Amino acid sequence: MALSSPHLQKVLLNRLCCNYGYKKNIIVKAGGGVRGGEGRGRCCSAIAINAPAPLTSVSGIRWGSTLIQGPREEMEDDAVIVQSDDLDGFTYAAVFDGHAGFSSVKFLREELYKECITALQGGLLLKKKDLNSIRKALQEAFENADRKLLNWLENSGEEDESGSTATVLFVGNDTLIIAHVGDSSVVLSRSGKTEILTNSHRPYGSNKVSLQEIRRINEAGGWIVNGRICGDISVSRAFGDMRFKTKKNEMLEKGVEEGRWTEKFVSRIQFKGDLVTASPDVLQVALGSDTEFVLLASDGLWDYMKSAEVVDFVRNQLREHGDVQVACEALARTALDRRTQDNVSIVIADLGRTDWRNLPVQKQNIVFELGQALVTISFVSLGIWLTTMISP
């Protein structure tokens, strides 16, 4: 990668900013509660306030986290890692991917954790591993947080249409709990094999989750245009987004004024529920001795790298140097080099069960590599032949 690359220059600038303390993204407090960092900008990577080295939990889990602003004008992503006595051995981590502003993310990074702790009775429900009770508690927590956010946005005195996805992890010694709203994704590496644990809440495609989301939106009185709800938003579950919840009629009126819809079209619409919901998918995953790491990232990564490719990349990074924070930052840089058009947020939990230094180097598929080389040579040869044919 050439030093003149604008993407590399951006990454180096981001790392310098973070190293000198201009930005504090990840919030860690050991006595309960969450402290907020100040300032937004183009800076990106830190895992804890004033803690440049990878964060290690009591259970031996090592954490890394990176936020990098892509080519977008605003940085609307955020990530939080919280180790607290309130969680009774579990660590809380979350990635927020905002849209139409940062207000909803700013609210959630403080409040969603509090709602989860209250609903889960601290770590009591997590330790019992009763998925039905955990699911009910986290659904209650997410819905309460969304209700409070909508009220906060309503009373802010501004016309704030912001919203945010949120994917939350509770990582324990042998258990992972996920509560998921939106299009960030969680993957797991078991002895190098990739397990995709979440499904994106997007109203397009033919997979089961997408079809369920489309049906729910239609039943609520909404419609889909080019994979977007009412031709607007591309995620079907998110916090905030008042125009799809408490201000649907105002959205229609505004659409008529702007000429997007006719009064005749609007007169036929009858809403029967929220078009966008903050109700989470909740799942519980066993972390066995073969589980290497858990990775959570926003869609700015997954839209440009496949899950198996990401897992292989992180494994090779950890085998090379064993530093989860360095691996996290290198992965984000790779997304930038792939020309991601979005912001990138990544959280990795290395479960501390793998001797990375003694892990064999992952063998490349020789046949595939040879095939790629032959294809490249063929194209180059064809180009040379065509050049000679058209030259005078």
Tell me what you see in this structure.
With 392 residues, this protein is of the alpha+beta class. It folds into 2 domains: 60-197 and 280-356, Phosphatase 2c, domain 1 (4-Layer Sandwich), CATH 3.60.40.10; 201-235 and 241-274, no CATH class. Helix content is 37%, strand content 20%. It has a 6-stranded antiparallel sheet with strand order 1-2-14-13-7-8. Strands 3, 4, 5, 6, 11 and 12 form a 6-stranded antiparallel sheet that branches. A two-stranded antiparallel sheet has the order 9-10. Helix 2 (103-119) runs antiparallel to helix 4 (131-154) and helix 9 (307-321) packs across helix 10. The protein is globular, with a radius of gyration of 23 Å. Residues 1-53 and 364-369 have low confidence and may be disordered.
What topology emerges from the helices and strands here?
Layout lengths: L5 H14 L35 E2 L5 E7 L8 E7 L7 E9 L3 H17 L4 H5 L2 H24 L8 E9 L3 E7 L3 E6 L2 E4 L11 H12 L4 E2 L2 E2 L9 E2 L7 H10 L5 H5 L13 E6 L4 E7 L1 H4 L4 H15 L2 H14 L6 E7 L15 H25 L2
Helix pairs in contact: 2-4, 9-10
Structure characteristics:
392 residues, six-stranded antiparallel beta sheet, 37% helix, disordered N terminus, Phosphatase 2c, domain 1, alpha+beta, 2 domains, 11 helices
Beta-strand proportion: 15-25%
Helical coverage, percent range: 25-40%
Q: Cα-atom Rg, whole angstroms?
A: 23 Å
CATH superfamily of the largest domain: PPM-type phosphatase domain
Number of domains: 2
User: Which CATH architecture of the largest domain would you pick?
Assistant: 4-Layer Sandwich
> How far do the termini sit from each other?
37 Å
Strand order of the largest sheet: 1-2-14-13-7-8
**Which structural class matches the secondary elements?**
alpha+beta
| Shape assignment | globular
Number of helices: 11
Mean pLDDT: 83
The topology string of helices and strands comes to HEEEEHHHEEEEHEEEHHEEHHHEH
At the first level of CATH, the class of the largest domain is: Alpha Beta
Number of strands: 14
Uncertain segments:
1-53, 364-369
Write the CATH fold name of the largest domain.
Phosphatase 2c, domain 1
* Biggest β-sheet strands, sense, barrel: 6 strands, antiparallel
Protein name: protein-serine/threonine phosphatase
Enzyme class: hydrolase
GO biological process, one term: signal transduction
Subcellular location: Membrane
